[in-house]
Amino acid sequence: MPSRVPPGQFETKAFPVLQSGRIHDELNAHNWDLEVYGEIEKPQKWNFEQLQALPHSNVQVDIHCVTTWSKLDTKWRGILFTDLVKIIKPTKKAKFVVMECEGGHTTSLPLEEMLKPNVMIADAYDGQPLEAKHGGPVRALVPHKYFYKSAKWLRKLKFVEKDEPGFWEVRGYSNTADPWQEERYS
């Protein structure tokens, strides 16, 4: 059976807390919202309660940090990205998704990468509401990429025609971020 831990990674049982800047613990279910805009037919702005009313799914996935740790069998709850796009209906011009976070952090991925299995807008981890230290109340989950592509403290999703490399990418990190190819840096 092939390893579930990519090359250059080690398995941890812990869930390390890493970020640039501070943890945005001022965000909560009462003051958080998510705006979805850009090259889509139905722009949206949901508060936390409205987001909870959308169809939710549970996934169990392995996650891999660019700093070399991997955590296996993590359990998440949220809205699958494939379900989200059924609501907002991207136009033919939409080729990339820019994830905009509290504090100005951004990252982006091709829309086709966001439509892969288990990609979600997550609001729970391991059966509990997502803690601020792990990006709560809501973060992106893109388990087939290094974890800096799973944007914490998510506030906006912008659908665009041309890529907009984000915070880590303009500082030398890989824009493709495939852990199985060790695409850590550009």
UniProtKB/TrEMBL annotation:
<dbReference type="Pfam" id="PF00174">
    <property type="entry name" value="Oxidored_molyb"/>
</dbReference>
<feature type="domain" description="Oxidoreductase molybdopterin-binding">
    <location>
        <begin position="26"/>
        <end position="168"/>
    </location>
</feature>
<dbReference type="InterPro" id="IPR036374">
    <property type="entry name" value="OxRdtase_Mopterin-bd_sf"/>
</dbReference>
<dbReference type="InterPro" id="IPR000572">
    <property type="entry name" value="OxRdtase_Mopterin-bd_dom"/>
</dbReference>
<protein>
    <submittedName>
        <fullName>Molybdopterin-dependent oxidoreductase</fullName>
    </submittedName>
</protein>
